[in-house]
Design a protein that fits this description.
This protein has eleven helices and ten strands. The chain folds into two domains: 9-99 and 216-266, Rossmann fold (3-Layer(aba) Sandwich), CATH 3.40.50.1860; 103-213, Rossmann fold (3-Layer(aba) Sandwich), CATH 3.40.50.1860. It has helices at residues 19-28, 50-68, 78-91, 103-109, 121-124, 127-136, 148-158, 166-176, 198-205, 215-225, 253-258; strands spanning 9-13, 34-38, 72-75, 96-97, 114-119, 141-146, 186-189, 210-212, 238-242, 261-266. Helix 2 (50-68) packs across helix 3 and helix 8 packs across helix 9 (198-205). It starts with 8 loop residues before the first strand and ends with a strand. It is of the alpha/beta class. A six-stranded parallel β-sheet has the order 4-3-1-2-9-10. Strands 6-5-7-8 form a four-stranded parallel β-sheet, sandwiched between helices. It binds D-glutamic acid.
Length: 267
């Protein structure tokens, strides 16, 4: 079925993390109307249980797709994808693109055979990650660290608030302290908030470490699934939708505008 040209791509995250994916989508599909959804009433997902995350994500995406009729949904959040992607796909008719930790490209990049993975606490314990490790990183060493304070750091950075550099040093030190951690040369940023902090993390890890995340692959997948479709963006700019009406989120205005999100709605 040919979608309405104004039907948006819906990008969903618990907060600002999905903007790291949106940046790549904009570069490939500059004409695409986008609705960016931040479930900031549910943030952070990473410290919640699997049942809480699955219920919240399926419920919200059900209501959002019914109301806004997107042509495609991108779950731009590793935590939500690794837990709820399969069940959301079962209930929604619209095409859904998920986010999975970039273990496959990391395994191809590493020279030392030791890969670090930074994600949320919920993501790093998923069987989904075990399966990616077994399939793509057999024979390598994958060291995982859950870093909830990096989620808060990305939220603060995009609001123009100061972030203590010790947060980045702690994340690097936690991976380095694991057996073989000193040999890490590749770090998977397995939370969409973390590419927003890549410069700070690069500083903390020091030279000789490369970072990889899934955003390029997601953007390519969205372009593939929408190839040949007509696009019509609103002259008013695209919409950022929040689930929590927090006046402090006005601080996000300039960051959202950089991604073309100039309208705001509380859902
Ligand atoms: N951005 C999310 C992810 O990719 C998680 C952040 C959170 O803890 O809510 O995993």
């Amino acid at each position: 079925m040919t979608p309405n040209p104004a039907a948006p791509l819906l990008l969903f995250d618990s907060g600002v993390g999905g903007l790291s994916v949106l940046g790549k989508v904009r570069a490939l599909l500059p004409q695409a109307p986008v609705m960016y959804v931040s479930d900031n009433a549910g943030l952070p997902y990473g410290t919640k249980t699997e049942a809480q995350i699955a219920a919240r994500v399926s419920g919200l995406l059900g209501r959002l797709t019914e109301r806004f009729r997107p042509r495609l949904v991108c779950i731009a959040c590793n935590t939500a994808s690794t837990i709820a992607l399969a069940s959301v796909r079962e209930v929604l008719e619209v095409p859904i693109v998920g986010t999975v930790p970039a273990i496959k490209p990391a395994a191809a990049m590493t020279q030392t055979g030791v890969i670090g993975l930074l994600g949320t606490e919920a993501t790093i314990r998923q069987g989904y990650v075990d399966r990616l490790e077994a399939e793509f990183a057999a024979g390598k060493r994958l060291l995982r660290h859950g870093a909830p304070e990096l989620v808060a750091a990305a939220e603060a950075k995009l609001r123009g608030q100061p972030v203590d550099a010790a947060v980045f040093a702690r994340a690097a030190a936690a991976l380095r302290a694991m057996p073989d951690g000193e040999r890490i040369d590749t770090v998977v940023l397995a939370c969409t908030h973390f590419p927003l902090l890549e410069a700070e993390l690069a500083q903390a890890f020091g030279p000789g470490v490369r970072f990889v995340d899934g955003s390029d692959g997601i953007a390519r997948r969205i372009a593939f699934l929408t190839a040949g479709q007509a696009w019509e963006r609103s002259p008013q700019g695209d919409l950022a939708l929040f689930t929590n009406d927090d006046p402090a989120d006005a601080l996000l205005g300039p960051a959202l505008a950089r991604y073309g999100l100039t309208q705001r709605l509380v859902f």
